[in-house]
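so i finally got all the pieces together for this one. its two components total, 226 residues if u count the protein bits. some of the lines might not be protein, just check the labels. i wanna see the whole assembly predicted at once instead of chain by chain like last time, that was a mess tbh
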Amino acid sequence: GAGVSQSPSNKVTEKGKDVELRCDPISGHTALYWYRQSLGQGLEFLIYFQGNSAPDKSGLPSDRFSAERTGGSVSTLTIQRTQQEDSAVYLCASSFLRSGGTGELFFGEGSRLTVL
Amino acid sequence: KQEVTQIPAALSVPEGENLVLNCSFTDSAIYNLQWFRQDPGKGLTSLLLIQSSQREQTSGRLNASLDKSSGRSTLYIAASQPGDSATYLCGSLGNTPLVFGKGTRLSVIA
């Protein structure tokens, strides 16, 4: 697509429920990132996919969080047994890998998660 | 571990003024540095990307510079306009995925 697409744009759920957030990166981009932005806070790195390499999961805050990327394209971030502190905007970004490092990152509009 | 700091946290200027936003990072072994703007309730929009081998990039009224040795980058906005009001974030990419500062919230008053 023309840009990074995320869905849903807004999600309200009850504490303890599971949620799935989806990211469609820019076509041809090899790298995909998930970040979280809590109210008044900076961007917190969650997970990074690059091609067929094992993902960098070092930013996932707990084992309730997981993500997968199917066919090197679409990614799903899953949060199990949601807690109120999971409420945040979840941002996805993609980039095209160039020699020596990644290229320019492009972000989606984010998925706003509210856990009641 | 890379740490990115942005100063000031907030800035209010009258329309037409030139201004500079600052970004500092602790690990100079970066691949690139990227500046973004974020409008309320929106995602991040890329403004400028500076590769580690470059010293500056320009786009319209925006000019970003990079000094790896001192761990600093600046974003210069010329002739500011009310439409420039947003939060500006810098992110550094090194051996770890992009690490962001907390941003500078800019208000340009008409």
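The mean pLDDT of chain A is 91.
The radius of gyration of chain A is 14 Å.
anyway lmk what u think
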